[in-house]
Design brief:
heterodimer; A: 330 residues; mainly alpha; MetI-like fold; 2 domains; 19 helices; 71% helix; B: 320 residues; 16 helices; 2% strand
Chain lengths: 330, 320
């Protein structure tokens, strides 16, 4: 793939004298560690080239891209650096991590740090909690928010306006305001230090309801009417006709819920006391402060904790980025 | 990502979601039929959950903020006592100051994001998606996990940041354990992690700028900088406004990064903690739930006021 990228570049240089000026950019790029991560580039080069072809702006096509590549290359490296550093540190010895002159590469790759994550930390317990919590919340939010969002968008019933206003007003309230009371509810149910306690409030989402209502409002009504005339009951209309059309919005809901649930800190921290009952986010946060910290093992654990979400992001990049941009969620 | 509070604004630049008001009346009225009990079957599971876990807690917290909690549980109604205590508590004003400093530094990322987004949207730029993924990576990373490596980077004895600063003759502070510096360190990570999101929102806004405007500007001999200032920025103000609101609201709720980078035992905490950290400390470490409820209400009102102020300002300077 790298070869193909190079071919395209040299072809561009040959065919268009103006692009000769991109050569310095290529050199600068090669001088940064970007070059080492080239694998990701050709894949992303595809859509970019397609866009250029279809942009219909030949006047600007030949413009030199030295400045964008320089700035974005340096910026991109700064963005990626902590991840790269974390990988290097996770494969070093504790002494190498703590050496005053940074080691750019460990003398010997310490793969056993990754084994130590499973042996010395309650990593598997925390991973299981994270997975269960995230799955249950995501499935629940999809089911509940889709049903409610559809009713608010397409059905008429007494009190729907008031009910919707109340649910949407929750969106304006910062989470600290309901935290204390949520804690007490979970405590009274005897759910402290259980998965049920971590999961409970996150099963319901005002945001998701808002998102799905907007999605159903945008769908055409004709299909629905046809199904009703054929004698389908409202649930059949919803599940057979409308639900399949709402799949793109449901995937936005799923992405935001997974990301939020996997990374969330404050709530699980509050309702769980024992580290083997926590999800990964809270478990990692409570690792520190320990004077005898074994840095490389902590680095390996952090990388493993992030890995599922990061890999999913890299695989689904466009969909995730567009989805989050549409949702406006932070 | 610690909670799903959003502002009621939609990203103005993103065309995919049409405003509900524009489309709803017609189709909605046509579907008007007797649905009987069906709507309630659809709505009640969610509505019950929202009522129990969100609506009721908001009312309860408002009430708690007027009560004082005993050490062994049980609470008594004490009127405005918590608020009276709160306004003279120096810790509140320190926390507010720290939160504002953090917000200010993270906001520096917005002009930076405008510039980077316009570079990223250069027509025909190769590797654009690759850059986009790189800049977005910090946003999806688990804050507590990535904070672990930032603790090492910022380490005063063996951190790579102080090593690099030393190479250019600057003696870096003990970032994590020096009052002011600890705040700056957390804010730099906050800026790093939110830059990509701002760039994506702004990038979507840039795509809606008609290319003819650039061509006209170019014909008039406008330099790229002049085009950026006179075409890009004015047409981007709705997106910039949206990014500002999102950034301020989420910065006011700083907790995850600070907790993960500074830790819970750090002696620097009393001088560095954010409003939400202060809330967490009072409510769940000191177990002073009435007082914590008052802090939560303070944060609520503060965010409400900022949002209101921004909508006022929006009328003034967003060009539509």
């Amino acid at each position: 793939m790298t070869d193909r990228a190079a071919q395209v570049r040299s072809a561009a240089v040959l065919s268009d004298p103006q692009t000769l000026s991109t050569t310095p950019a290529a050199l600068v790029e090669a001088a940064t560690p970007q070059e080492a991560r080239r694998e990701g580039a050709p894949r992303s080069g595809g859509p970019a080239r397609a866009r250029r072809a279809s942009s219909g702006r030949p006047g600007r096509r030949g413009r030199s891209h030295v400045v964008p590549h320089l700035v974005l290359g340096v910026g991109g490296f700064l963005m990626a650096f902590p991840f790269l550093w974390q990988i290097i540190m996770s494969l070093s010895t504790n002494a190498e991590v703590q050496s005053v002159t940074p080691n750019l590469w460990p003398a010997e790759l310490q793969w056993q740090n990754y084994v130590a994550v499973f042996e010395r930390l309650p990593f598997l317990d925390q991973l299981r909690t994270s997975v269960v919590v995230t799955l249950v919340r995501t499935v629940a939010q999809i089911v509940l928010c889709t049903l409610a969002g559809y009713a608010f968008a397409r059905m008429r019933f007494r009190g729907s306006g008031v009910l919707l206003a109340v649910i949407l007003s929750i969106l304006m309230v910062p989470s600290q305001v309901y935290l204390i009371s949520q804690y007490q509810i979970v405590q009274n149910l005897g759910w402290l230090d259980t998965i049920a306690g971590i999961v409970a409030p996150g099963l319901f989402s005002a945001f998701g309801t808002f998102l799905m209502r907007t999605a159903f409002l945008a769908l055409p009504a004709e299909l629905e009417e046809a199904a009703r005339l054929d004698g389908a009951n409202p649930f059949q209309v919803f599940s057979r006709v409308m639900l399949p059309l709402a799949v793109p919005s449901i995937s936005v809901l799923a992405i935001t819920t997974v990301l939020w649930s996997w990374n969330e800190l404050l709530w699980p921290l509050v309702v769980s006391t024992y580290s083997d009952r926590m999800p990964l986010s809270a478990g990692l946060a409570t690792l520190i402060g320990d004077k005898t910290t074994d840095y490389p093992v902590v680095m390996a654990a952090s990388l493993l904790a992030m890995a599922p979400v990061l890999i999913a992001f890299i695989v689904l990049q466009r969909r995730v980025i567009d989805g989050l941009a549409h949702s406006g969620l932070k | 990502m610690s909670d799903d509070t959003i502002t009621p604004t939609r990203p103005p630049a993103v065309p995919a979601t049409t405003p509900p008001a524009a489309q709803s009346p017609a189709p909605r009225r046509r579907v008007l039929q007797r649905d009987g009990a069906w709507p309630w079957l659809f709505v009640s599971p969610l509505a019950a959950g929202i009522a129990v876990f969100f609506v009721w807690p908001v009312l309860q917290t408002a009430y708690y903020s007027f009560t004082t909690w005993g050490v062994f549980g049980g609470s008594t109604f004490t009127g405005l006592a918590n608020y009276a205590r709160l306004v003279v508590d120096p810790q509140l004003w320190t926390a507010l100051g720290n939160t504002l400093v953090y917000t200010g530094i993270v906001l520096l990322g917005v002009p930076l994001a405008v510039w980077l987004a316009s570079l990223l949207n250069t027509p025909g730029l190769r590797f654009a998606s690759f850059y986009r993924v790189l800049f977005f990576l910090p946003y999806v990373a688990m804050p507590t996990a990535i904070a672990m490596v930032w603790r090492i980077i910022f380490n005063g004895d063996f951190g790579v940041l102080n090593y690099l600063l030393g190479r250019v003759g600057i003696e870096g502070p003990y970032w994590i354990s020096t009052p002011g510096a600890a705040n700056v360190a957390v804010a730099l990570v906050g800026l790093w992690s939110s830059l990509g999101f701002a760039m994506i929102i702004l990038g979507a806004g840039l795509k809606s700028v008609p290319p003819e405007l650039y061509e006209a500007a170019e014909l008039d001999g406008a330099t790229p900088w002049r085009q950026f200032r006179s075409v890009t920025v004015p047409l981007l103000t709705p997106s910039i406004f949206f990014v500002l609101i999102i950034t301020i609201i989420s910065s006011f709720q700083l907790f995850d990064l600070q907790f993960a980078i500074l830790g819970s035992q750090n002696p620097v905490l009393p001088k560095s903690l954010s409003l939400v950290y202060f809330f967490y400390q009072q409510g769940f470490i000191a177990n002073d739930k009435g007082y914590a409820a008052a802090i939560a209400m303070f944060i609520f009102v503060l965010i409400g006021l900022v949002t209101l102020l921004q909508f006022r300002l929006q009328k003034k300077w967003v060009q539509s």
